[in-house]
Structures are given as C-alpha cells and as structure tokens.
C-alpha cells in the first residue's frame, strides 16, 4: 500500500525511490510485523485470559503438560494480524501472488478459528469434526491451486515440477495433476504444522526458518539475473513473496517472544493451520515444493509419526511410538521439553541449510 504513496512522493524527492527496492520493503515488512506483535501481544494475551480462552490438556498426554491447562490459546490471531499488516503496508498489491497467498492464509486461519472456538469457548471436546475441517481445507486449498493454475503467465515454468540440485530440470504437470499436487502441498503443509504445534515454541521457530528460506527462493526466482545465474526457473512476480515471507518471519518471532518456554500463549489451530498453508502455498508459487519437503522435515516426520502410529495400532493393536506426534515420544522417554524443542530447532536449521544449498548445487 505504501509503495503507491512513496512512488507519488518520488516525483518531488528522488530519495523516496529507495522504497521501490524489494529488499528494503521486505525488511520494513518484517519490522512492522515484529513491532506490531510486540505491541499487541500483552493486551492480546490479557484479553484471551479475561475471556478464559484457555488450553485444555489431554489426560492421556505427558504429565508435564498438566500445569499448562488454562494457558491462553488462539494466539495465532496475533500472528495473522501482524502478517496482514506487514504485507498490506509494504507489498505491491497489484501482484496476483500477494492476494492469493493472503486470502488463502486468512481462510485457513478462519477454519482454525472455528475449530478453536468450538473447543475453547463453546466447550466442545471435539471442535470441528475431522471430516468438516478436512472438507473446508480441501475447498480452500483446491481453490488456491486452481487459481494459480488459471492465472499462470508462463505455464511452461509455473505448471512444472522443479527437481532440486539439477539445473533447470522441470517435469511438466498436466492441469489436474498440477492442481492435485499443489492442493496436497498446501493442505499437507497446513496439517503438518498443526501436528507439530504441541510444545512451547516448537512449531513457530521452524515456520519462521522455513518461511525465511522460502523468501530467499522467492527473491532469486523472481529476479531474471539471479535466476539465470543460479539455474532456477524465473517466475514473474514471485519476488513479491519475499515481503510476505519477511512479514511472516517478523510476526513469528514476535509471537515466539510470548510463546517460548514456558509459554504465555499458544497459537492454536487458527495460527498453525494458517502458517502451514502459507508455507505450502509460497513453495508452490516459487516452484520449490520438493525443497519444502526437505526444509520442513520436522513437520513431515511429525505427520508421518502420527500416520504410522494410527496404522500400526489399527492393524496390529500395537503402538510404534510411546505417543504420537513424535515430540511426545521423546518427552515420554525422559527428554525435558526445552531439550526436545531446541533439538528440533537445530534439526530445522540443518535442513534449511541443505535446502538453501540447492541454489548452488546444480
């Protein structure tokens, strides 16, 4: 939004041209989201506490979690507001990717909101039924995938699967295959982050790290010079995703200030579902779905652990892990919660570096 103001002011003073630089706008987007999170956080937590929107703890869960009962939840709304402000203020709002990603992120946040609201405010133990939640996730995720397919300006690139670590190796995807694949990435990423969000700060820091890395891919993939030099496909307009990713990182770090162990607030489904969908959708935009699979390895493993646990119990009556998702397994093995959290963060840092290495290893 402010880019239009600065463009106008540049007619009177050339110094305002500095705001046309994507990197500066990304920094300002991150700072805007971060400062807004810091400023709104205490009041937001106080409001949630006064309304008694507190976390309920499963009796079958680790005993160390019992004292967390009543901790304010639905803090993901703070993340979404901060991302929205940072992006709307500093992104180029004529860019189609900006609106597709923003609308999809908010829509997934709305799904999470209704799930949290039913559980925490209305007292429903189940929240949204799994089938209902999946239906709405599928509708929104499929719509976003279809919109990307229909608005592609260079289908040869935007409708192809990029194989990382090889120069310009693209596998063309037909219409229904592309939409189906993009849908799986968006919905799968959303649920992966949601399953990971079980310990203080466990999900938000990996989301920040992966989001920041995707912002780098967006910047180089949306620049003709850098994309040509690095041997990656050029996606016109994808560079603007750097501003969104920067706002996501700023909002996430601001939320982590209050969510770090011991947490003052939890993000809830409203934040986890939205952040996961945002990461998945940005990966689709910048054609880095397979890199997301690597960098978001913690989310992948957490999801796979649940699938394995459920399948094993249904087929054999035995559990592979002491508890799923995987972070609970390590807790029950005696790892202190902060140790689980920090070690998962370290793993994510390594995986993100491996993913970023694909920019040069080709």
Question: What's the structural blueprint in terms of helices and strands?
Answer:
Blueprint: H1 2-9, H2 22-50, H3 76-90, H4 96-120, H5 130-150, H6 155-158, E1 160-162, E2 170-172, H7 175-196, H8 204-221, H9 224-230, H10 241-259, H11 268-285, H12 289-295, H13 297-316, H14 326-332, H15 337-357
Antiparallel strand pairs: 1-2
Helix pairs in contact: 2-3, 2-10, 3-4, 3-10, 3-11, 4-5, 4-11, 5-7, 7-11, 7-13, 8-10, 8-11, 8-15, 11-12, 12-15
Number of E-state strands:
2
- The gross shape turns out to be globular
Unreliable runs: none
Category by helix and strand content:
mainly alpha
Helix content: 55-70%
Average pLDDT figure: 91
| Strand ordering within the main sheet | 1-2
Radius of gyration: 20 Å
In N-to-C order, the SSE pattern is: HHHHHHEEHHHHHHHHH
End-to-end Cα distance: 37 Å
Q: Please tell me the total number of domains.
A: 1
* Number of H/I helices: 15
**Content of β-strand:** under 5%
- Biggest β-sheet description: 2 strands, antiparallel
